[in-house]
Design brief:
By secondary structure, the protein is an alpha+beta fold. Helices cover 30% and strands 20% of the residues. A hairpin with a 3-residue loop joins strand 1 (12-17) and strand 2. The radius of gyration is 14 Å and the shape is globular.
Length: 142
């Protein structure tokens, strides 16, 4: 049975469910940062997924990436599946700017995360759900 890793649970907000994944918002307002987590138990690498699920994950990742780049008018996207601290397979999607505090390096370990205020997180999640639902044809559920 699938269970979200405790660290991801503690560091994120639930946004929606896609056909394969749980979509999460990282609780760090410094960066537009979403995470896709395939809801498949016991996997740590993309090749652990069935070939059909690998295809679904790639499509969902590309749709999410296209949305983030356009919605946030990002200079660049960082898409990563590191898993060094959380072995459960998850894909980070981070909109980056030449002006952000970590540019041009990675966002991990730079500065102190700035958690969202509860009202801001709620507003942002609503905006993300609305923005992702139609143009991306992701099967989103709250």
């Amino acid at each position: 049975m699938f269970e979200l890793d405790a660290r991801l649970e503690a560091d994120t907000y639930f946004v929606a469910k896609t056909a394969l994944c749980r979509l999460l918002l990282m609780d760090d307002a410094r960066f537009p940062w979403l995470i896709l987590v395939p809801e498949v138990a016991g996997i740590s690498e993309p090749f652990d997924l069935s070939e059909s699920d690998q295809t679904v994950l790639w499509r969902e990742s590309m749709r999410l990436s296209r949305f983030l780049k356009a919605h946030y008018q990002a200079d660049k996207l960082n898409i990563a599946a590191l898993g060094n601290q959380v072995p459960q397979l998850h894909l980070h999607h981070i909109a980056r700017y030449h002006s952000d505090v970590a540019w041009p390096g990675p966002v991990w370990g730079i500065g102190t995360p700035e958690p969202y205020a509860a009202e801001e997180a709620t507003r942002l999640i609503g905006s993300l759900r609305e923005g992702l639902a139609l143009p991306l044809s992701l099967t989103l559920t709250a």
